[in-house]
């Protein structure tokens, strides 16, 4: 393809993806399935890798999230809230593991976690009291949702120790709450939410905390900011520490060293995901050793020390099957 043709294709992909991002991040109402977005995003990434001189400043590969809600107050994130790299096959995951292990000088293992299908949030505590909640926003600036997070039962107002700290995690809507909410919306003649992720985002990014309170949102917390202040050296220890402080931490995380064990974990949750009471869209591998994470650092958009393996799309991601769900 001639350069001018590549530039045109890149411009078209950027325009289409940015329109979908506004629908998804800003309006909480996507018009296409994630798999369709991911397919075009990959095409754009491949073209940009082959032609780095044609990368546009407004390319979605250079930015986290979308425009912020103009009506919500803003909160800076001194430590940015980033996105995550992703792969779509076990073979790609094995290549990522191989490249990563070549770039580090000490042995590592991974904390393997479920990728919860919700939206990221940050919680700040002073002397053990919840003082601020915010969304990821564009990564550097989030939306202030302090009043709203105070309505979520799984978020402790007071920690078991009077510490100053920040944690991050995922806010999600359990499947049963999503089905009930959409039934209510349809009965009231309102537009139903496309999926539990968008229902969670729409419910958390509300001006009226009473609306959030009615929506049965839940959280799993998975990131401790500045873990070295608490002498914590692995992601697995960080999860245990946050659990002790009173946060709800997903119980399925496992430390794995080999690709065979990681593949088995992926296979288990590819088949068991329908039985969970919450949506997952993949699994996340995080280098368990926090000093190694710090040494690897981040690109402009994603940490180098973690990767998401995304599940293949289900027939219809919006169909929630009528099964017994366990937490
Ligand atoms: P992402 O959702 O693929 O991955 C990063 C996010 O994963 C984090 O911000 C965090 O919120 C979440 N996460 C869940 N469990 C986690 C765990 N255990 N540890 C760490 N993080 C965890 O990246 P993104 O930038 O938020 O969104 C990009 C994705 O959003 C796309 O791949 C696409 O699937 C979807 N999207 C869809 C549309 C659409 O129109 N359908 C538009 C834009 C984006």
From TrEMBL:
Residues at which NAD(+) binds: 34-38, 83-84, 113, 136, 170, 286, 310
Signal peptide location: none
Superkingdom of origin organism: Bacteria
Annotated active site: 115 (n6-amp-lysine intermediate)
Task performed by this protein: DNA ligase that catalyzes the formation of phosphodiester linkages between 5'-phosphoryl and 3'-hydroxyl groups in double-stranded DNA using NAD as a coenzyme and as the energy source for the reaction. It is essential for DNA replication and repair of damaged DNA.
Family: Belongs to the NAD-dependent DNA ligase family. LigA subfamily.
Name of the protein described by the UniProt record: DNA ligase
UniProt source species: Lacticaseibacillus saniviri JCM 17471 = DSM 24301
Lineage: Bacteria, Bacillati, Bacillota, Bacilli, Lactobacillales
